[in-house]
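Hi C.,

You asked whether I'd gotten around to modeling the 90-residue construct. I have! Everything is below, sequence then structure, no commentary in between.
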Amino acid sequence: MKHNQIRQVVFPILAALIWGTAFVAQDVCADTIGTFTFNAARYFIAVLALLVLMRLIPQTPDGAEALASQLRDFVSASVGYLISCGRGTR
């Protein structure tokens, strides 16, 4: 099997596994904690994962400009998410 064909098989299976386990976790947590707390915890985990990915992605020769661009994207995504969380609590 070619490398690309393996990806086409493994990635959808991995996505289904993550999706399925996340559904079970959401169902269990819905009985235990509130929705706002659950979304905040999920967002915090996503922030940590993105920070790790930002460190792992190789920088371009002009590293300062690339880092500034990544931080701008990260902040704008964060603000958008916080706005959407605020709208869901009303």
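If it helps when you're writing up: The two ends are 52 Å apart (CA to CA).

Thanks,
B.
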